[in-house]
Design goal:
GDSL-like Lipase/Acylhydrolase; five-stranded parallel beta sheet; single chain; 15 helices; 2 domains; 29% helix; hydrolase; hydrolase activity, acting on ester bonds; alpha/beta; elongated; SGNH_hydro_sf; Rossmann fold
Length: 510
């Protein structure tokens, strides 16, 4: 059986770029715009990859130039804003080197395969950004890709020597003021007169993108014990976030805070359909026959013996029909039945028992991640054409975000957002509800001067090719949200930007 998965990557090449906008008069009138009660002369942006301008799976120079803080800084210049510096990458490839050895891949670009279908591929070439060549000076954009909330206060997070063992961040290592510096310390050390803080997304994102392969650390207050894909305890988040806001907002410094988006609404989780397996009636009947004994005797027997609950037994039933089907998967949240199935009274061979040990079928409440598109429906063993991933071979748990895992993410992000909003209110800081704003991209989109911006993968214009980070057009939308909040809170009149002025995904963006 050949690859049975066909996607919306095969989209019309036309329509990848929105209509060009009609532009208003250029902003040139001196004195017309003002900063209200805010002082924009030294703006420092603190955050993670979203602040840095990361997009399409990498940090690269053009992406940084289209970061939302850089876009904002250009608008601030009309109302007393000063110079805004960034730790720019050396090229537009986006990869990283450490003493000449590649440690991070190049960015994605849109390419057309042999069958004429467009899709993301890594840009070829050797990057020139070596993190061993440290940058000097300070930088207004303190966005560090990969940073979680507690990383911003961690000493040594920018120590180059710690990068190979995962003890430090390669992006921060390029521009940290010292090997023992902290991100928040370097930011505050610049004496900002205005700041933005958008952090916390990575405290749940890696758990989500890995299909819940980490641990929900709620109740564990020691982040030194956390794994890279774990969910940060909300109390830990509240403590470090409060510390960061107190440092940045010292002596009445104004700023803007943004909350955590609903990450399950981004293209990484919404592009691949859950019913991704097309089958004809004969193939469906053949598969059902193979699982008949498992459905009618094994599962009911295990439930009757109270080895698993009736609810789990029902969840583990496998059923295919003519048309679009849910793939089968392994779920590490289920009871591992491998040893039981190898023993009495089942006596199943080890390979079969291992296959059925944590098997279930994806359901409508699950989310299949974007990277599953490269494996779902494929035959990993050419000598076994019946061995199709998602049909006779389960899709790995890392490619599916189950409803139970989504609930853990939601609980944590809700707690994080409560902390962020409470601090914004207590400090009188501007606040951006990015959760609601980015959700609008997923539910119809937002109109701009010449088109509609949505979260549709590739064609929507709002997100880059990694399905997680915005496109330049998406970052322009975020910049406008920030500017609107600043204007409202501080009685400022900072001009917004024309979203259509900024690029999005095209077949020629390499």
């Amino acid at each position: 059986m050949k690859n049975i998965l066909k996607y919306s990557f095969a989209l019309l090449a036309v329509g990848l770029v929105g209509c060009e906008p009609e532009f208003d008069s250029p902003v040139t009138d001196e004195g017309f715009y003002n900063s209200g009660s805010a002082n924009l002369s030294n703006y420092v942006a603190v955050g993670n990859s979203l602040t840095a301008g990361y997009e399409s799976g990498a940090l690269y120079r053009t992406g940084q130039e289209n970061s939302y803080p850089n876009i904002m800084a250009k608008q601030f210049a009309h109302a007393g804003g000063g110079e805004f510096t960034q730790p720019l990458m050396n090229d537009n490839l986006g990869g990283l080197l450490l003493n000449g050895t590649p440690i991070a891949p190049n960015r994605f670009v849109l390419a057309v395969d042999a069958n004429g279908n467009p899709g993301p591929v890594r840009l070829e070439g050797t990057p020139s950004t070596d993190i061993a060549n440290k940058l000097s000076g300070s930088f207004n954009n303190m966005g560090v890709p990969g940073a979680k909330s507690y990383h911003l206060v961690a000493q040594g997070y920018g120590n180059v020597a710690g990068v190979p063992v995962g003890a430090a961040n390669p992006y921060y290592a390029r521009f940290a003021s010292s090997e023992s510096a902290t991100v928040i310390g370097d930011a505050v050390g610049q004496n900002p007169t205005f700041f933005s803080l958008w952090i916390g997304n990575n405290d749940i994102l890696s758990y989500a993108t890995s299909g819940g392969s980490g641990v929900d650390q709620t109740g564990n207050f020691d982040p030194r014990t956390y794994g890279p894909n774990d969910i940060t305890d909300p109390n830990v988040f509240a403590q470090v976030y409060s510390e960061q806001v107190n440092l940045l907002a010292r002596e009445g410094v104004k700023g803007v805070l943004a909350n955590i988006p609903e990450i399950t609404s981004i293209p990484y989780f919404t592009t691949v359909p859950t019913q991704a397996i097309p089958l004809d009636a004969a193939t469906a009947a053949q598969l059902n026959a193979q699982f008949a004994l498992y459905n009618t005797q094994v599962l009911p027997g295990l439930a009757a013996a109270s080895v698993i609950s009736q609810e789990e037994a029902a969840m583990r039933m496998i059923n295919f029909s003519a048309g679009q089907n849910f793939p089968i998967m392994t779920d590490d949240d289920l009871t591992n039945l491998t040893q039981i199935l190898m023993g009495q009274p089942f006596n199943l061979p080890a390979p079969i028992a291992g296959l059925l040990g944590q098997l279930r079928q994806v359901n409508a409440d699950d989310l299949i991640v974007l990277t599953a598109s490269s494996v779902l429906g494929t035959t990993p063993d050419p000598s076994n054409p019946q061995g199709v991933i998602g049909v006779s071979i389960p899709l790995s748990d890392e490619f599916v975000l189950a409803a139970s895992e989504q609930a853990r993410i939601s609980a944590a992000s809700t707690a994080y957002n409560a902390t962020i909003k409470a601090l914004a209110n207590a400090k009188g800081l501007a606040f951006v509800d990015s959760k609601s704003a980015l959700s609008r991209l997923a539910s119809g989109g937002i109109a701009y001067d010449g088109g509609v911006l949505t979260s549709q993968f590739v064609t929507g214009g709002g997100f880059s090719l990694d399905g997680v980070h915005p496109s330049p057009r998406g970052y322009a939308y975020i910049a406008n949200l920030m500017i609107q909040a600043i204007n409202s809170t501080y009685s400022a009149t900072i001009p917004s930007v024309h979203i259509g002025n900024y690029p999005t995904i095209t077949l020629t963006n390499n």
